[in-house]
Predict the structure of S-protein homolog.
Amino acid sequence: MKQTAASTRQLLCFVLLLLAALSLGNCKSLNSHGKYQVQIFNGLEDDILHAQCTAEGEELTNADLNPNQEHSWSFKKRDMCPLRISLTSVVEGAGGQFISVRVCEKVSPLKLAFRVEKAQKHPTLIAESRFTSHTQIWCYLLWTKGRRSFLSFLEDPTSMNEYSANAGCEWRAQKNGIFLLNKKTGAYEHRYDWDKKLDP
């Protein structure tokens, strides 16, 4: 029993170190300064564009943009990645010890399960983990003939890579929809249509 408790403590220390390393990787920024910038440009010819953006329930911007006016703001990703770790259970099973760890972030809780093979002299840690929680910024754009709520920023370098070179996303509102700048091609790509504005 002493050996089991000691190996459980050793495993828990290893798991905590592993999670700390994973969390740093998950919060690593795309540029050397650790900052991101989101920009919204009013490409409507003769209308004011209202822009309101939030992250994790906190308002980041609330602005009225005149035609050909842009509004941008920046933030540090690391500030938006708090990490809390707690051991939820240790279960003895036929295949070995199973340790369940809960990782809580602002956006949503994550679970990681670790298994140690008993049969081996030096236990092998088998981990299954998937980080699905990322910083998300939602924007709501409104003008006289349309409105749209959309995901304007996702903390996921694999999905935003061609749009967030140098850690920025540039959105453009036009009469025919909302466009995102592809920084590899230099062209704005249509991403969203407008929802028709309801009459009061």
